[in-house]
Amino acid sequence: MTSTKTRNLSFLLGFLLAALVLAGAVSYLADSNPDGLDHATLKGCEVVETADGEQLQGSCIAQNAKDHQLAGSPLADYAVGGGEGTTGLAGVIGVVLTVVVAGGLFWVLRRRPTK
Amino acid sequence: MTGSVAMHMSDGLLNTTTSLLFVGVAVVGLAIAAARARNDLDDRTAPLAGLVAAFVFATQMLNFPVLPGVSGHLLGGALAAILVGPWVGALCVSIVLVVQALVFADGGVTALGANITNMALIGTAAGFAVATLLKRFATSKVGLVVVAFVAALLNTVIASLGFVLEFAIGGDPAFNLGGVTATVVGVHCLIGIGEGIITALTVGAVAAVRPDLVYLLRGTSRPLEVREGTTA
Questions:
Q1: From the CA of A58, how many Å to the nearest CA of chain B?
Q2: Which architecture characterizes domain B16-217 according to CATH?
Q3: pLDDT tens digits along B143-156
Q4: Partner residue opposite A99 with nearest CB, options B50, B62, B104
Q5: What is the residue range of A16's domain?
Q6: Shortest CA distance from A65: residue in chain B
Q7: B158, B122 Cβ separation under 8 angstroms
Q8: Same structural domain for residues A20 and A43?
Q9: Would the keyword Nucleus be found if you checked this record's keyword annotation (chain B) (predicted)?
Q10: Among A81, A112, B14, B48, which residue has the fewest nearby CB atoms (within 10 Å)?
């Protein structure tokens, strides 16, 4: 069944490559505007740039949002060490991490052939 | 609250009791999914499922514009469910949300239960239910792509209703629920179109090269190669 195995492997590698290209390169084209949920929670507020960063003026749900407990983590906000232009690298790390965690879990959970 | 690539519910939008309630919902849902997922995972599908999770992670980074000043991103429930089944699919999206919250500070840690409930449980269940209902139209390539589009569109809209439910239970009562609902559901109808297009393209691409790996197509009359180990 070597040909089946090779076919499976090349398909899986192609799928992985697609994820790496999307996260590593296409991610630079992503729209940085608030997403649908953020848009809804920001309704009623104006985002104002101040010396202390962005402030919300007005009245909106997002004012209840707490800062993330892990906001200081090395890959926070899809940047490596907070560095400008590192989204692609952060994305590649995320893809590799996700495939290892998910693939590992699914490999452990899988049915073994009963012999 | 600075701009980031993807964004889920932050901590603080729901009160603590409600956040913990949905942590409970998520834990129970994931336990059931993990127990049922075993049946759908074998040497052949487990690696694919890991890659589906990674693909959802990658695609969630790709915010696309839906209105001036508003973006949207894939949730991924229908995509994962069509490719690897609803139980494994729910686990795929959950793993993505956990990685995002704990490693990328995207989506609050106590809000993780609510985010998993909406995107991984409700979204995946809705997407798979729609895809299953429409399965008889998925007999051609075009049919499958259309089914994937519709399932993904509804997955997005129905998942956004999860937020509305949570906000109704434990959100700030100072804000009018009707107004919040209209904004959230309205914008997710538009995001759902993007989700539908991405899901249709992805499912179409996989089905073009490996229809035997598409979960939704299992048991259909299309000619498949002989598979080993399917008699359990």
A1: 13
A2: Orthogonal Bundle (1.10)
A3: 999 999 999 999 99
A4: B50
A5: 1-30+77-115
A6: B12
A7: yes
A8: no
A9: no
A10: A112
